[in-house]
Amino acid sequence: MSGPLAGLKVVDFSRVLAGPFCARTLMDLGAEVIKVEPPRPDVTRFAMPTHGDMSGYYAQQNAGKRNVSIDLNVDEGRQLALRLCDDADIIVENFRAGTLGFFGLDYETVAARNPRIIYASITGYGQHGPWRGRMAYAPTVQAEAGFTANSLAHYGEALSGLKTDSLSHADVYSGLQATVAILAALHKRKETGRGQYIDVAMAATLLAINERAHVDLTDIDLGPEPAVLGATDCPFFEGPNGETFTVATSMIGSLTFRFYLSAMRRPDLAKDPRFATAEARQQNYAALHEIIQTWILTFPDMESLDAQLDEAKIAMGEVRSMRELADSEWAEYWGAVREVPDRHGGTYRIPGHPWHFSDEELPETGAPALQGEHNRSIFASLGYKDTEIEAFYKAGALVDAPPLPGAAKKPAPKAEAEKAAAPKAGDGKAPAQAKAGS
After folding, report:
1. Is 240 exposed, middle or buried (0-12, 13-18, 19+ CB in 10 A)?
2. Full-prediction pTM beyond 0.70?
C-alpha cells in the first residue's frame, strides 16, 4: 500500500454518501478501509445506473474498500464488529445519533478496548441537543441551514418554481470536514497516544462553508449592490463561435463593473447615467449585457477573448458537460478520471484524485467489492479458524450477498468469491427499527 496514510486501518460503518465519502478519501490517501455492510445492503448498491448487482453510485464511493457483511442484530455479529475495531485506527459512521450505541459499538465501548481509536460520527445536527434524533439527508439539511434559501433569494424571479440544488453538498462537505478532523486527531494522537471522538454536524458544516454567511447573519442591507463573489450574479454570454460561457464577475457590483470597462476599453460607460450606479445598472441590465455581448462577438475565438478578459482580471469558463471535461487534454494530464471494474465485464468511469503529492505515490483504486466478499479473508487474518467462521455463518452473524430484487435466490458464494476479485469496498449498518440519515 502506498500514500501518506499507508498503514492506517479504517472501519467504515457508514452508508450512502457522507460517511462513505470520508472513508473513501482516507483510502485514496493510502489507508486500508474495511466497509461493514448490513444484510439489508447499502441502498446505493441498487441506485441507477446499475450493471448487474453493482451500481455506479456505489462503485464511485466504495471502489477499493474491502467488504464484510455482518448482522449486528445477532450477538456474534456484534462481537465480530468489536473485534474489527480492536486493531483499527479510525472508525467512520453516519447513522442517527445513538444507533451504534444501541449495538454496543459506541465510542466509549470501543475506546475501552482500543484507546487509540479515532471515532468520527456524521449526523445532521450532532450527537446531542434538541435535534439529535432527526433524520437527515443533504437536501433537507441544506434547506434547514440557509443554503437553499440563499439560492432561492439569488435566483428570484428566474425560478419557475421552488428548487433545490442537484448535488448533495451537505453530505460531501461533511465528509470532507470529518476527514480534516480525523487527520487533526491523528496528529494529536502522536503526542498523547490516545484517540478521541469526533462529532460532525451537517448543519454546522453548511454554516462553516458558506462564504457569504456574514451577510445573512449580520442583517446587512446591501440594497442593489450584490455581495462580492456571488456565484449567481455571474452573467452568461455567447462566445465568438457559438460557445456558452460565464464569467465570475458581477456586471452590477460597483467593485466589479469597472473590470468590464477595463476589458472593453470603455471608461466612458462609467459616466453613462444608465450605468452610473448599481441601482441604475440593475434597472438597465439588458442594455449593459447587450453592449458587453456585442463586444465579445468582435473577437475571432475564445482564446483571444480569454486573453483580454484575463488581462482585466475577469475569469471565464465555458459551459461544458462533465464528459467534455473528462475527455479534455487537461483531464488526461491530471489523471482526473479513472476506471474501475463493474464486476460484470465492464467498467465505470469515476473521478480521479484531486491532489498530486511531490513525495507520495497514491494507491491505485481497486474494484468495488461484492457484499460480504471479504468475510472469510478478513476474519481469518484476525485469527478465526475456518470452523469458527462457518459457525458465524450458521448463526447468521456473517452473510453473503443477497439475490438481486426479483432474481432467484443463489447459494452463498463462500470462498470462491474471495478468489475472484478486487481490492477493497464497503458500507454500514442499522437495524430495521433504527433509521439513520446520510
Report:
1. middle
2. yes
Summarize pLDDT for 256-296 with one digit per residue, the tens: 999 999 999 999 999 999 999 999 999 999 999 999 999 99
User: Cell 461484492 sits at which residue?
Assistant: 370
Overall average pLDDT of the 22-39 stretch: 97
Residue 254 CB contacts under 8 Å (≥ 6 apart), including other chains? 225, 277, 278
* Residue 55 region by backbone torsions, left for phi larger than 0, else alpha for psi between -120 and 50, else beta: beta
